[in-house]
Fold TetR family transcriptional regulator.
Amino acid sequence: MAPMSLRERKKAKTRAAIRKAAYRLAAEQGWDAATTERIAEAAEVSPSTVVRYFPVREDILLTAENDEELEARLRARPAGEDPLASLRAVVLEAVRTALDEEPEETRLRARLMAEIPAVRARLTETTAVTGRRLAGAIADRTGRDADDLEVRVFTAAALGALREATVYWAEHDGADDLVALLDRAVDALRGGPALPARP
């Protein structure tokens, strides 16, 4: 990727300050207390700046800055690799990075996804946006159209499984290894839960 311009760096710095302020308020006082006005005050920007960067407040938690990077990494996977294996590799790498670089924010985001209906609802919308972007990469890899039903279903199912595993992790107080849970979620797409053995 080309290096960011000064303007782009300033915008990224502002977005980061807003995010940091929102996470701090949510961690200390709960998401309801993290109003646009209070986030703006904590980030030392105006409320209109917060709204300009994040028109929907929940997007401060959920808007994926790395969609472009995820798509690029997916396109860079070996051409003959199974699409599900490719998707697993890039998503697990992204989650490992998030856990390494922002462990508390990652845990808080997952907990809010599990506990706050508005966050969960918005997550469904942002996941759909990510899915459409990744569907284009999957379509190119498989020689299909991005609007192909199988491509759309595959991508939506994979991202839905990963989202559900993250919510499961939060509901169980982050006691399990999130990367391992995501790995299990991808495996579940291949065959679903096994039937019990007959006596």
